[in-house]
């Protein structure tokens, strides 16, 4: 995937003794990463299973975005994660020309799909939580489906298509085959990397954060308004229902959005920072020396990002927890 396969490759121009982890630590790390990936695969599959199986979940427009996130994360864990391990463990490319030229760059789509689907969830939550009605009217699934399709198309055009044009499979004389991006100009790689940092972290995080604080302010203002009305005019069944609605929405908002925003901000930041820093310090001996260690840290955090979202949904939703148990029982 783009995050740790394609746009964070450090080009070495001189011999530097790169700090590598001991073999015992590498075994432990790969074991932990594989376990996290397995948990993420089961969890994301359970989310897709729950939304598809249960009619109430399947007809909720927000869950269309949640399923899109789960599909992106599931595809990342099933394709990008193993390809990243292959790239780490081998000094050459053992999977052939077709995988190098087409499959490897295309896996970057899943990164964009997951992130922008989370942004779409935030925008959709903004519309729902801002409503001052006791019950939202039924909503069509047409708009969420169009948005999800647009996210997939945008991720392909903006993220994977440029890599399809520059990725090459080649075999130097008396050496084993290589697979890497061959940019015709260094400026193009610079522009692409900066654009990816903006499109996959800065812009979506800004959108999510603004939406988050807008919803929070709206809910607190609504609750304060109804408290003041209750103080001046006395209690009533209707006002109690409105107060209960505001409090229930604020509680659910905190349960869902807060961990999603915090998880995204923390786990994707090291990767975005590493991508930008590598543009300016890729020839720095100190940076090259510790590049592998920094790279593995970014890899680990992004792996958490793809695996932990189902845990958030499971904590909040009883139906998601039930579906997770069904998936585990079916697998056993």
Description of the structure:
The chain is mostly helical. 80% of the residues lie in helices and 2% in strands. The protein contains twelve helices and two strands; from the N terminus they run αααααααββααααα. It has a two-stranded antiparallel sheet with strand order 1-2. Helix 4 packs antiparallel against helix 11 (291-316), helix 5 crosses helix 7 and helix 8 (186-233) packs antiparallel against helix 9 (237-281). Mean pLDDT is 78; it is low at 1-5, 7-14 and 225-229.
Query: Helical segment tally?
Result: 12
Helix content: over 70%
Q: Give the overall pLDDT as a whole number.
A: 78
Q: What structural category characterises the helix and strand content?
A: mainly alpha
Largest sheet: 2 strands, antiparallel
Question: Kindly, what is the distance between the CA atoms of the first and last residues, rounded to a whole number of angstroms?
Answer: 30 Å
Strand content: under 5%
**Gross morphology:** globular
Which regions contain 5 or more consecutive residues with pLDDT less than 50?
1-5, 7-14, 225-229
């Amino acid at each position: 995937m783009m995050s740790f396969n394609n746009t964070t490759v450090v080009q070495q121009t001189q011999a530097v003794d790169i700090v590598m982890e001991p073999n015992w630590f590498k075994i432990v790390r790969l074991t932990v990463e594989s376990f996290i990936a397995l948990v993420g695969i089961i969890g994301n599959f359970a989310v897709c299973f729950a939304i598809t199986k249960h009619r109430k979940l399947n007809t909720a427009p927000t869950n269309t975005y949640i399923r899109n996130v789960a599909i992106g994360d599931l595809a990342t864990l099933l394709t990008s994660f193993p390809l990243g391990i292959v790239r780490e463990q081998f000094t050459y490319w053992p999977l052939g020309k077709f995988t190098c030229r087409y499959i490897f760059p295309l896996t970057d789509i899943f990164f964009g799909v997951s992130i922008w689907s989370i942004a779409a969830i935030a925008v959709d939550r903004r519309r729902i939580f801002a409503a001052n009605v006791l019950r939202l009217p039924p909503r069509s699934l047409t708009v969420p489906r169009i948005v999800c399709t647009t996210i997939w198309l945008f991720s392909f055009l903006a993220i994977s298509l440029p890599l399809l044009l520059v990725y090459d499979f080649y075999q130097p004389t008396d050496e084993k085959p290589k697979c890497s991006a061959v940019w015709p100009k260094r400026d193009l790689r610079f522009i692409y990397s900066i654009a990816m940092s903006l499109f996959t972290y800065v812009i979506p995080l800004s959108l999510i954060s603004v939406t988050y604080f807008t919803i929070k302010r709206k809910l607190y203002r609504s609750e304060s308004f109804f408290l003041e009305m209750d103080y001046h005019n006395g209690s009533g069944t209707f006002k109690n229902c409105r107060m209960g609605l505001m409090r229930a929405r604020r509680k659910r908002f905190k349960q869902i959005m807060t961990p999603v925003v915090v998880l995204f901000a923390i786990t994707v930041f090291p990767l975005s920072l590493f991508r930008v820093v590598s543009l300016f310090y890729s020839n720095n001996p100190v940076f090259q020396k510790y590049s592998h260690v920094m790279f593995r840290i970014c890899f680990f955090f992004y792996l958490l990002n793809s695996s932990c979202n189902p845990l958030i949904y499971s904590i909040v939703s009883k139906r998601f927890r039930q579906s997770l148990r069904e998936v585990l029982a079916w697998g056993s």
